[in-house]
Amino acid sequence: MNSKTATAVAHPNIAFIKYWGNHNQELRIPSNGSISMNLGALFTRTSVTFDESLQTDQLTLQGESNTGPALQRVSGFLDIVRKTSSLDSFARVESQNNFPMGTGIASSASAFAALSLAASVAAGLDLEEKDLSRLARRGSGSACRSVPGGFVEWAKGSTDVDSYAISFASPEHWDLADCVAIVSQAHKATGSNEGHRIANTSPLQAMRIEQIPSHLKRCRDAILQRDFEVFAEITEHDCNMMHAVMMTSNPSLIYWLPPTLAIMQAVREWRKSGIPVCYTIDAGPNVHVICEAAYQENIVSLLNEIPGVERVMRSGPGGPARPI
Ligand code: DP6
Predict the structure, then answer these.
(1) 102's torsion region: left (phi>0), alpha (psi -120 to 50) or beta?
(2) pLDDT for 100-143, tens place per residue?
(3) How close is the Cα of 55 to the center of ligand 1, in Å?
């Protein structure tokens, strides 16, 4: 046989305790641990075929052939799989998201989680979950958290061997909803790759890193006890800390737009009025508004009333990356 093929599906995730900054940039060993929830309504589906007749790797994204930086990144990642499996043929990669790109949902997490699984199966590697998570981390840090299911913690580790993510609660454990308020679909000026690289230029980064172990414990315990009040307080605090680092790094990164701040303030008012809701924001202007699922209809209609909100996407917790 001269071609080996496999297909896999993985969900993106939203971090409650954020990954920002690397201890080892090349291996993507993070400066700090992080906690996230997979987003079950959203997914990337990826097929990989290693084919001896190919002269180069090929990438099709959302039905369109790609020859730019995305192909380079995928090809570099496939080199790691080829090295691990002693396979030397090139591959055809076809990847499709069921959510639009550029909406503030990090597609690199689900993309590299699905690619890791499809490529490793196609290459004949039978990786256990932790090794799949380690592999996905090499493609995109947050992708290691899209390998296990539900509520996930990425322990930072200190080497390639001990830096991976595990699930600490199933998707059914807590019926949370992520209502993503899209305020801009423009491509971000500074991607997370560059952001991680300059995180240490902020005088606040060292202080943030020092606090992370207690943030992780507070967030993990709040999720395990379904304590929304503590969960909201620590999730917003960690998001604000990460954005403070971004704003004070060199060059300074300001991802928020005026509607971003309007949503943050509205969410705090809603919480004061008794609704279990909080916000978190990644490296972009769109706001992930997290609430208990029973309140999501109400939250979506409240968000739609805020000037500048273009649309709201939503998702509950999701399962692990899986072959299909
Ligand atoms: C702000 O995983 O996208 O979303 O490893 O360069 O692909 P790369 O970075 P990435 O960084 C995610 C940053 C974040 C926070 C988080 O998801 O934890």
Answers:
(1) left
(2) 776 667 789 999 999 999 999 999 999 999 999 999 999 999 99
(3) 32
Overall residue count recorded for the chain in this entry: 324
Q: Which ligand 1 atom lies nearest to the CA of residue 283?
A: 1
> Do the beta carbons of residue 14 and residue 322 sit within 8 Å?
no
Is 196 near ligand 1, meaning CB less than 6 Å away?
A: yes
For the chain, the distance separating the N- and C-terminal CA atoms, rounded to the nearest angstrom, is 21
Asked whether 153 lines ligand 1 (CB < 6 A), one says: no
Kindly state if the Cβ of 145 falls inside 6 Å of ligand 1: no
Q: What residue ranges in the chain does DSSP mark as E strands?
A: 3-10, 13-17, 22-24, 29-30, 34-38, 44-51, 58-61, 64-66, 91-97, 151-155, 164-169, 176-182, 277-280, 287-292, 311-315, 322-323
Q: Could you tell me the distance, in angstroms and rounded to a whole number, from the CA of residue 238 to the centre of ligand 1? A: 14
Backbone angles phi, psi at 98, to 5 degrees: -95, 15
Mutate which of 140, 192, 249 to test ligand 1's pocket (most atoms within 8 Å of Cβ)?
Answer: 192
15 lines ligand 1 (CB under 6 A): yes
Q: What is the pLDDT of residues 18-39, one digit of tens each?
A: 999 999 999 999 999 999 999 9
How far, in Å, is the centroid of ligand 1 from the Cα of 206? 18
Q: What is the pLDDT of residues 255-294, one digit of tens each?
A: 999 999 999 999 999 999 999 999 999 999 999 999 999 9
C-alpha 106/C-alpha 250 separation (Å) is: 23
Report which secondary-structure segment, H or E, holds 79. Answer: helix 69-85
What residues does 37 pair with on adjacent strands? 14, 151
Which residue segments constitute the domains of the chain, with CATH numbers given? 3-172 (3.30.230.10), 176-315 (3.30.70.890)
pLDDT tens-digit readout, 206-241: 999 999 999 999 999 999 999 999 999 999 999 999
Ligand 1: residue whose CA is nearest its atom 6: 193
Which of helix, strand or coil describes residue 321? coil
